[in-house]
Amino acid sequence: MATIAITCMHNYQGGYSRISDGYIKAIEQAGGGPIVLPPALSPSAGVKLLSLADGLLLTGGNDLSPFLYGREPHPQLGDGAVRRDEQEPLLIKEALRLGLPILGVCRGMQIINVTLGGTIIQHINQEGPEAIQHRQNSPGWRRHHHVDIKSGTRLAGILGSGAIGVNSHHHQAVEKLAPGLEVSAYAPDGTIEAVESASPWITGVQWHPEMMFEHYPEFLKIFQAFVAACAGQK
Ligand code: MN
């Protein structure tokens, strides 16, 4: 069974971590064994523990610090996650060094992009005729807007190419794409909704498949493809 190291949300003031059940259930149903690396761990311990795993899953959460990519804070920047901002780039670099597949969900996709040298839109434009809503008020698992999956990408192999409805719970997005990454899906307003790299194995999605797969089973396929890639490591 492929062991999957998973990062999680952190409340710095409260001094606790939490992770949505969806990630744990999705990895388990895909045949993997999830282990969580809480942000309270020292960064060096997290990096050491990653060597026990076959893959790295970076989960959703708070906004990235713009310091990570050399910008000043936008007035609408939301709550941050200082321990994760420190932990996750180290885990990504170690996973790359070890040759482990990486899956990023929402914030997870964004921090992959930043760690590899890309930048982030701190506050998606909500004005103008092209704007669409990326923070849905409907139930979290529901399809909210479309994305267009580019043919020939890994994601197209997993979900099929063309339009598919996804949920949306973000107000940041990838701006400049990092070297080595390719866009595999866009929203109708031009927002980058998925990225990937063939080698090393990297897939990032801006939506939340772990919230959707119990209602729309096709979204489990993302986790199945990831776990299969991780299982191939040994
Ligand atoms: Mn969206």
The topology string of helices and strands comes to EEEHEHEHEHEEHEEEEEHH
Strand content: 15-25%
Profile the largest sheet: 9 strands, mixed
Cα Rg: 16 Å
Overall mean confidence score, pLDDT:
96
Low-confidence stretches: none
Helix content: 25-40%
Structure classification:
alpha/beta
Number of strands: 13
Bound molecules: manganese (II) ion
**Order of strands across the widest beta sheet?**
4-1-5-6-13-12-11-8-9
Number of alpha- plus pi-helical segments: 7
Cα end-to-end separation: 10 Å
Overall shape: globular
Question: What this model shows, in words?
Answer:
The chain is of the alpha/beta class and 234 residues long. 28% of the residues lie in helices and 22% in strands. Helix 3 (82-98) packs across helix 4.
